[in-house]
Automatic annotation (TrEMBL):
Residues 2-246 form the Enoyl reductase (ER) domain. It comes from Thermus scotoductus. PANTHER family: QUINONE OXIDOREDUCTASE PIG3-RELATED, QUINONE OXIDOREDUCTASE-RELATED. This is NADPH:quinone reductase. Gene3D superfamilies: Medium-chain alcohol dehydrogenases, catalytic domain, NAD(P)-binding Rossmann-like Domain. GO terms for cellular component: cytosol. Keywords: NADP, Oxidoreductase. SUPFAM superfamilies: GroES-like, NAD(P)-binding Rossmann-fold domains. GO terms for molecular function: mRNA 3'-UTR AU-rich region binding; NADPH binding; quinone reductase (NADPH) activity; zinc ion binding. Signal peptide: none annotated.
Amino acid sequence: EGVVGVRPGDRVAFANVQGAYAQYQVVPAERLVPVPAGLDPKLAAASLLQGMTVHYLLKSTYPVQPGDQVLVHAGAGGVGLLLIQWAKRLGATVYATASTEEKRALCLEAGADYALPYEGFAQAVKALSGGGVDVVYDGVGQSTFEGSLEALRPRGYLVLFGQSSGPVPPFDPQVLNRKGSLFLTRPTLHHYTATRKELLFRAGEVFEAIRAGWLRVRIGAEFPLEKAREAHEALEGRKTTGKVLLIP
């Protein structure tokens, strides 16, 4: 009663709303987005949160332009694989880091120009790029932060959007000056989908990219909902690639 914009039977998706580990969920109608006809519901579930994250990172936080050089950490993860594909679509040269040869092969398959181990990545990127990249998209945090700063060109951007290895310790902002007047930002999806207009815009472009076939979503593993603990253990053990789904 009183709900507008959605009717019983509509196929919808939501993201960034707490309580998704459930068979049923109450979600404000204004946070629901329509799932296009013909789009596999598993793909919709696998892509919405991470796809919109990639969208705001590449289109709004640091708008990537043709010819830009981009470093993506955790390139074989759910966000990383989408970042690689979309950055290439925008005309960037993409460097990706990953922890194993298998994961680096996935980065190259997704379109990365270079796939590197974490050890010594900053020096390798600076050498390959001719002095540093324009932007680093870092969802790893503590273990990559200093290297990410080193990998940037003067006046480059470090976009710190996660901390899978732990939070970055406090540091002196003068470091940004000494390393070339660098920019540092810590964005979050909530502030880039705060209005329904922006939510629908980002979700619509993600779903359209998947339907068009140029954005491929890798579902690396599926777990029944009652095995959510095992899913988290696999994630924390860095045993997964792509997106992990829980099936109610």
